[in-house]
Design goal:
This protein has one domain (4-222): P-loop containing nucleotide triphosphate hydrolases (Rossmann fold, 3-Layer(aba) Sandwich), CATH 3.40.50. It is of the alpha/beta class and 223 residues long. The protein has helices spanning 46-53, 78-85, 101-113, 116-130, 145-157, 175-192, 203-207, and strands at 4-15, 18-30, 35-39, 61-66, 69-70, 86-90, 163-167, 195-199, 211-216, 219-222. 39% of the residues are buried. It is 36% helix and 28% strand. The strands form two sheets. A six-stranded mixed β-sheet has the order 6-7-8-3-9-10. It has a four-stranded antiparallel β-sheet with strand order 2-1-4-5, covered by helices on one side.
Length: 223
């Protein structure tokens, strides 16, 4: 049984010139504990696919299964499921400017449990693991780009999700900081058996993953 599986996933958009088919029947199987990269040219549909996997958008047709169970994308429980089971890391960190690094990390768990003590304790544990505990009381605008991305990774991990979806996580980082981020992701995979799906145009990053898929003209193929 796969942790995540898609069957014949399709997505299109209506434009002035007609219907644009972005994803043309995506079949993907991801085992628990894997590091998976999906690459493709700009406009190939990578981010669209990630949004579907994370249930931030709905496909035109096809199925998404988590742990062998098909997800009903029309249920009201999708936001709760997403917050509990899926972590997100974006190119732009989307940290809340009025909250400290520690509070930003704790937020998803606080929403899920309403337990502030537990949420802050887990946030500090992750900050220690990711090497940013000394920045816990700093606000996002007081953090470097690399520190902000570490905070966003910790936030993605706070509810101990089954899978983390990352959209160009190193896109705004310099080379050295990008390497540090990937080392950290591999550490999380190794020590926590955390599953990652990483959308990237960076073939160097893709080469470090255990599995590599290429999305081209709406078709996904394993390299």
């Amino acid at each position: 049984m796969y942790l995540l599986e898609t069957i014949d996933l399709k997505k299109s958009y209506l434009e002035v010139v007609g219907k644009l088919e972005v994803l043309k029947g995506i079949d993907l199987q991801v085992e628990a504990g894997k590091l998976v990269a999906i690459t493709g040219e700009s406009g190939s549909g990578k981010s669209t696919l990630l949004h579907l996997l994370g249930m931030l958008d709905k496909p035109d047709s096809g199925k998404i299964l988590y742990s062998g169970e098909e997800i009903n994308l029309n249920t009201k429980n999708i936001p709760e499921f997403r917050n509990r089971e899926i972590g997100f890391v974006f190119q732009f960190h989307y940290l809340l400017e009025d909250f400290t690094a520690e509070e930003n990390i704790a937020m998803p768990m606080l929403l899920a449990t309403d337990n502030q003590t537990k949420s802050l304790k887990e946030a500090r544990r992750l900050m220690q693991l990711l090497g940013v505990l000394d920045r816990k009381d700093h606000y996002p605008n007081q953090l470097s780009g690399g520190e902000q991305q570490r905070v966003s990774v910790a936030r993605a991990l706070i509810n101990r999700p089954k899978i983390v979806l990352a959209d160009e996580p190193a896109g705004n980082l310099d080379v050295n900081t990008s390497h540090e981020l990937m080392d950290m992701i591999k550490k999380m995979n190794r020590e926590l058996q955390q599953t990652f799906i990483i959308i990237t145009h960076n073939l160097e990053i893709a080469a470090q993953m255990q599995e590599h898929y290429i999305l081209e003209r709406g078709i996904l193929q394993k390299k």
